[in-house]
Amino acid sequence: MVSQLQPTADVFYPDSDGQPMADNTEQFRWIVVIQQNLEWMFTDNATVFVAGDLLWYPVQGSREICTAPDVLVAFDRPKGKRGSYQQWKENSIAPQVVFEILSPSNTRVE
């Protein structure tokens, strides 16, 4: 049987999903408030990474398995710029806290 997965060296992990960060001004405000306050709260801790609207790829070689939480927090990861959060490049540490801000258009199930 031939594997359908591409070799991991050939996989391209986009930094954008083409989706807007928020559906409305209220949702955007809460995303910014939460992200900025977490940044402020952990400003003196070099090993807490906080990001907003960043694609998170948990599985190497599977770019279709990804999500973009409104805000994510990863402990024991250095601060810094990233185009996406590729978990295997982060000592396999998943974000420990994620926030999703619902908009009025979200369904009850969401």
**What's the arrangement of strands in the largest beta sheet?**
1-3-5
Provide the structure class: alpha+beta
Please indicate the count of domains.
1
Order of helices and strands: HEEEEE
* Tally of separate helices: 1
End-to-end gap: 38 Å
Account of the protein in words:
This protein is an alpha+beta fold and 110 residues long. The chain has one domain (21-99). 15% of the residues lie in helices and 15% in strands. The protein is built from one helix and five strands. The strands form two sheets. The chain has a three-stranded antiparallel β-sheet, covered by helices on one side. It has a two-stranded parallel sheet with strand order 2-4. It is globular. The mean pLDDT is 87.
Describe the structure using short key phrases:
110 residues; alpha+beta; three-stranded antiparallel sheet; two-stranded parallel sheet; globular
